[in-house]
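U., I forgot to send this yesterday:
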Amino acid sequence: MTETQFTPKTYEGEREITWCPGCGDYGIIAAIRQALAQLQIPPHRAFFVSGIGCGSKLPDYLKVNGYLGLHGRTLPIAQGVKIANHDLKVIITTGDGDSFGIGMGHFMHAMRRNTNVTMIIEDNKVYALTKGQYSPLSPKGWVSSTTPDGALEVEVNPVLLAITGGATFVARTFSGDPKHMTQIFAQAIQHKGFAFVDVLQICVVYNHVNTTEWYRPRLYKLDGDASYNPRDYQAALQKAREWGDRIPIGVFYVEERPTYEEQIPALARGPLVQHAYEGYSKQTWDEFRATMM
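Result:
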């Protein structure tokens, strides 16, 4: 019997994609399909969680398990899914506003727990779905529909925050480089622990500063530097602070640490969804469940 071979087409959904022409999300979803096929992950073993935003529509356009949650609440849902069935590959696709605005608190705790999930940030530095307001990742001085005099706050550095917050895999890539995105996504999904990937993404409608033409001459790849060691914490912090004329992409930091799921005694016998009823009849469980509906 020949084994099933999954291709990027395996993961294509049936719904019409409604992103703006030229949006960086097209490159991101293509690279995700490529990474899933490269890793030969069966569609029923992949679980995508998203929140609210342009990129958060992504699970609608994939043939995998998907859940669209509330704004900023992707991580509690993803962690719950992983605990219930830690055999699944749980991948979060969410925007910079969704993650670092209302979702910031969840982000910090998921990292320190080292939950075994992959978090992909679609970082276009603007609230695009709601017509161009500045986000936590917009630079200070950003002029938008709600800040005509420029944003007052200093922007969040997501890579630096991920390294200092406890993520055990931290990387950055660019929506205009599908090959690099595929490579980084595959590494992140394979990593055992909380994997964070910041995708520098263009928004052709509301961000006319951080364009493809702006990024290309500035970006350079860390894997092109033979002296760089992603297991060097201090070196990772230094690279994470680089922004301006030169912007690094690639894997910034990697470490091994026990995952949250490995430390839960109830999961030692396997995923909760595979546990048999113990001590109670099925009728008792059905009656209990009925009271919760």
